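Tutorial handout. Part one gives the primary structure; part two gives the three-dimensional structure as tokens.
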Amino acid sequence: MKFYEPQRLKKVGPALLTLGIAASCAFALSAPSVFAGFTSRSVTTNNQAVAGRLLVELVDANGSISTAPVMSVTGAMPAMPAKTSTVRFKNNGTLPAAVVFHSNNVTASSASNLDSVLVARVLDSNNNQLYSGSLSGMSVNFASVAPGATVVLTLELTWPDLPAVDDNPYQDASLSFELLADASAITA
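Part two.
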């Protein structure tokens, strides 16, 4: 029977031993910075951004949205009593709004344009005059209408009897127009 003799370890040179020790020290020194230390985290959830809504609408006395004409004058003539109508607009949005109440598409049916003889006036709820002039030039600015607020105005049309004006060419003339409440969001 043959027995194997254990092999003897060869002697390791001093340079190789020094290199091994240096590598072990380098690893030992770098390991704590990779694997050790304190950490902390704080989290907020369900963050969101929601846009506001800008919605200004003409409404009736009950607050319902209205597109029906608010001013209809028949039998207009010089020195007629003032024809009045209540106009309401409401900010049904969630943002404060700057609003311009104005006329648009003022259209005459003949060469004798009633816009040149009719006088439009806009009054606020305290009877303060906000505008007086031609219907085609009517424009009233409201700097801030809060969400949910309703603005109540009176629109008045008159035909002053001016002695120096020949009113005969205006017989059977007609005029159509739109009333608008244009809104823009107020920036903070």
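Part three, for discussion. Strands lie at 56-59, 83-91, 97-108, 119-123, 129-133, 139-145, 150-158, 175-185. The longest helix spans residues 14-35.
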